[in-house]
Specification:
mainly alpha; 79% helix; 186 residues; DNA-binding; elongated; homotetramer; 10 helices
Chain lengths: 186, 186, 186, 186
DNA sequence: TATGAATGAGTATTCATTCAT
DNA sequence: CATGAATGAATACTCATTCAT
């Protein structure tokens, strides 16, 4: 039994390292050899833990969904004022910016992968809806406004992909403040 | 099999059709054969117009940059009130939603492609900055607010990628109204 | 009728220019486009005069055979002394050194081409035998010695392929003198 | 499917088998598939040992240079009389006739390959010069005469390419005897 | 369990050949 | 006749996957 736990733990460890690789190169342009090299193992070992390249992508998405917002609630304090709760969300988001950015890119790859295979986009839809529902619960704001916030944060990650090298943190702070300001006033 | 007279015109025609293909499958997962098939030509013809798959991506990005926002200004009426101008922008954006969405996906692919080749991200940075500058000119709003609008629209395109099948138009309308409302009040 | 003569004359003209191309790059590594470019015509025109790449090689070999030693006899004076006749041969050979060198390379290509197609080497054998016979007639020397001379000249062309850039002429003169000297003494 | 232990040894083994293939068909007309088939491996394995077709040719030439005349000296007895030493050389040459013939053809291919790439012919020049120098040392004959011998042997290999099927051995013997006779008398 | 050599189907690219103009 | 765009089979090369060690 402990053997299996270890194996699974290692598998997840490898999996999490794949996120960066896929985000950087794109799933389709990343070879199994590159992945193996990136993880510091041989291709043979890679195939011990994952049956195929396809399954790496799929398991990675599944894994991230499980985690997902869970991490946030495990740590997010309950705040009285809505403004405070919004700040909590944004602070958390900013602190894990790279991670969410990589996750975003992964979802795009996964989306294209599903499309290629002619599969319905149910998985990502589910992720998005669960995330949305949980944010509504936490923020206690109208659904449309929560959407607005999430959409904005997606856009923020995208923009940071190809611009704002040095001044990125400042720019993100400026933009998030703008968001908070606008929502406060409403 | 008619002899093409305007070689460059035809090249651009082919190029523009590549956008949809790359957006759907991702650059790395789209084969030259698929591209050729999608364009209704043979692989040989494809190579008659483009020296390599890589150059298709690069030329496509270059081509879209030239066009870029130019299309918008060619058609956008000058409005007195700032609110009207914002509506003009958003209406234009919504009307060309699919196109901008595909362009967004292409830029992500291009970004990863550049990263793979160890090239600086100057091209996309330039595109973004020019777009920003032109929107500032048109909207006559503070730079930060223009950023906010563009970021939001990016996020919108992303979200529509994997959700909102039927009710997409409504949802987009709701969200853009929210944006306009928030900015109006400020 | 004159039309045909013209066409044929032009075909031979093109053909003769192919010799240099094949000799330089090798038949297998020379593309039809390179040939066309080298001849200053389009690939379409090339196919007006030759049905296939293969046939260019074959026609070229055939053409050269017809010419072959004929050119020599058309010009070679009849000399009394055997030594003089040998000098005539060698002088002629040296004067057309590049041509014979290219022809040599062509024959090697042709030899490999025939082998690839599983064809007997009768053509080249025939060329060689006719050449030999004619040289015996002209030089009036024993068959074995004529062979010796021809073999030596083949070797000379080969060596000059990859050495003796500047001092080639001198070296060839030295070696041919050595040949004449050795044969004289016998 | 045994796991190869000595990677470099195996590489050289494969390499040496390429000589015959290139000599028979010519480098440009030999496909990687044919090579793989000829070596009894898959194309994948071929690329596991060689980065490109081009490099096979280049490595093959390099490898043969290293060996080169070394093999001769490893076995050649020291003879007193110059005539005896010449016989040793010629005997060795005749015994390895096919090998030298194939090497000759390879060098022609390599020469054309270098020319195609616009590279100076230094490699082959070097080989030839080293060979020449070593033969001068062994034979203790004047440089010009050694050249004469080597040139003659080159020519001999060439002639045997497209003639003398059955009676080849006899003819070679006759011609080499003629060479020895001529040089003896001088 | 881990390795990396081996495989061959699949990918990008080339090239002899055709054909509408 | 001449052209060069178009074709697709063939070529060089890659890469996910397997398997002996």
């Amino acid at each position: 039994m402990p053997k299996i736990v270890d194996r699974d733990r290692y598998r997840k460890e490898l999996l999490s390292q794949c996120l960066g690789l896929f985000a950087e190169q794109g799933y389709g342009s990343t070879t199994m050899r590159q992945i193996a090299q990136g993880l510091g193992v041989s291709t043979g070992t890679l195939y011990h833990y994952f049956p195929s390249k396809e399954r790496i992508l799929e398991q990675l998405v599944e894994e991230l969904c499980e985690q997902g917002i869970a991490d946030f609630f495990a740590q997010a304090p309950v705040a009285e004022a809505m403004g405070d709760r919004l700040r909590v969300v944004i602070t958390f988001f900013v602190e894990h910016f790279r991670f969410y950015q990589q996750q975003l890119l992964l979802w795009i790859d996964f989306h294209q992968h599903q499309q290629r295979k002619g599969i319905e986009q149910g998985v990502l839809q589910g992720v998005w809806r669960r995330t949305h529902a949980q944010m509504v619960t936490y923020l206690q704001m109208p659904s449309a406004q929560v959407d607005f916030i999430l959409v904005f944060m997606d856009g923020l990650m995208l923009q940071c992909l190809y611009d704002h090298g040095e001044g990125e943190a400042d720019w993100v702070a400026q933009q998030t403040e703008l968001l908070i300001g606008l929502l406060d006033r409403s």
